[in-house]
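Researcher: Sequence recovery benchmark, item below. Answer with residues only.
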């Protein structure tokens, strides 16, 4: 500021000091915004995952619904009937018994292609024999889910349940084969979305 033709030294220092403080604040804000933007972009990039979901009625008439991500999160629910005799916790369960599986712990989620995912999980299992109370146990699922486009009329599900991890054809612990007789869904839709 001028006082009688002279520049006030304190005012000049204040302006200079304010200018430096303002510049420092501006630089700090720019750096903070840049750091936040990079962190958000990194989180977004790290957050992109392959995922699959769907549900409906299998070729054999069982109801199912699932979701799965390549970080092995998600679950799989299935309600149908056993296709082979099995013994669970000392109880003989005949083929044709009502079965419900809730799979909550994926061991593997493998995205085979942009349209196919294979799922392997541990499941809580319930079996009903002759209308009696449920028999609880642990089972394992191997499911191959194929997305053949919209609206899902040609989507496919091949599902096996057994007493051993990775059940499938030839596994002595396999008690449910919802694959061999056909895989095209009666109704429903499967979505496979690669990252």
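Model:
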């Amino acid at each position: 500021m001028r006082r009688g033709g002279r520049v006030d030294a304190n005012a000049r220092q204040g302006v200079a000091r304010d200018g430096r403080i303002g510049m420092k604040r501006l630089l700090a804000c720019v750096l903070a915004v840049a750091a936040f933007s990079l962190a958000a972009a990194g989180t977004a990039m790290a957050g992109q995952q392959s995922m699959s979901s769907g549900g409906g009625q299998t070729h054999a008439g069982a109801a199912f619904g699932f979701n799965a991500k390549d970080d092995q999160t998600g679950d799989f629910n299935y309600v149908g009937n056993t296709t082979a005799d099995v013994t669970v916790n000392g109880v003989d369960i005949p083929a044709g018994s009502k079965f419900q599986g809730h799979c909550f712990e994926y061991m593997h989620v493998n995205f085979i292609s942009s349209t196919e995912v294979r799922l392997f999980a541990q499941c809580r299992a319930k079996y009903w024999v002759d209308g009696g109370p449920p028999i609880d146990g642990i089972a394992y699922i191997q499911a191959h889910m194929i997305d053949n486009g919209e609206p899902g009329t040609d989507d496919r599900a091949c599902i096996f349940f057994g007493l051993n991890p990775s059940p499938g054809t030839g596994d002595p612990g396999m008690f449910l084969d919802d694959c061999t007789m056909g895989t095209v869904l009666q109704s429903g839709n499967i979505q496979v979305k690669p990252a």
